Amino acid sequence: MSATNMPGSKGRKGKNINIPPELPEILKQFTKDAIRTQPADLIEWATLYFSALIQGQALPVKDNLEKATAPKAMDLSPPSLTALHTQLGKSSKVTKKQLEETWKSCGLSPDLLKHILSVGSFGSEIEWIKFFALGCSYLGGTIKNAMIHACYILNADSSLQPPDACVPLDTFHFIYTYLAGVDGEVSKTQMERAIAQLETLAKENGGMVKVSDFINSRKIRLG
Q1: Counting CB atoms within 10 angstroms of each CB, which of 70, 115, 138, 155 has the fewest?
Q2: Separation between Cα atoms, residue 53 and residue 91, nearest integer Å
Q3: Tens digits of per-residue pLDDT, 71-111?
Q4: Residues 175/133, Cβ–Cβ less than 8 Å
């Protein structure tokens, strides 16, 4: 959008141009959908996109285009992710072949595995904690829920039982910032504020972040 078309500015002929207040949000969502879908012909795809938007039809985005074969998050459960972590989490990195074999042994959907590998842009060697983090995000749906699942599975204090659990601050920090980066909707300021508040609480709890620190907190917003 050019500077002459911004709200309150004038067009080439000196006339004021009113920008609909919903336009920035529409363009933002269009950009996100285009990046996710990666259409071969952007112009043609944009025409289909806005036509569908006007007519109230399903948008030609990746999620809808692959709906018939899209993997379901329910294929992955807390027990199965725990089993994967038990078998593969002893090493910081695993090979794609190792992951595929272990995933198959747990009876999980191969389509879901392909989807997670694609989201994480993983190659032949995979940083396990990142894959684990994405698994938690599929279980939770939101960053906060993903972090709750991560704390439950990685619980460092057996005396704590759900709805509470804890993980070392550095582990929480890594998983949280990674998922926030993948999500793309959490600002750097919001992340830094949340981590700073959790650091303060962790100092009072032996360097641990507990689920009870953030699950119902109005001050700590993870995303």
Answers
A1: 70
A2: 47
A3: 443 478 999 999 999 999 999 999 999 999 999 888 898 88
A4: yes
pLDDT of the residue at 115: 92
Instruction: Answer for the pair 93, 126: CB distance below 8 angstroms, yes or no.
Output: yes
End-to-end CA distance of the chain: 29
| Model pTM score | 0.66
Whole-number Cα distances in Å, 73 to 111, 129, 193: 11, 19, 30
Q: Find the Cα–Cα–Cα–Cα dihedral 126, 32, 220, 84, rounded to 10°.
A: -20
How sure is the predictor about 216, in pLDDT bands with cuts at 50, 70 and 90? confident
Q: Note whether 151 and 211 are within 8 A (CB).
A: yes
Give the start-to-end residue ranges of the domains of the chain. 3-65, 73-214
Question: What torsion do the CA atoms of 188, 191, 193, 199 make, to the nearest 10 degrees?
Answer: -140
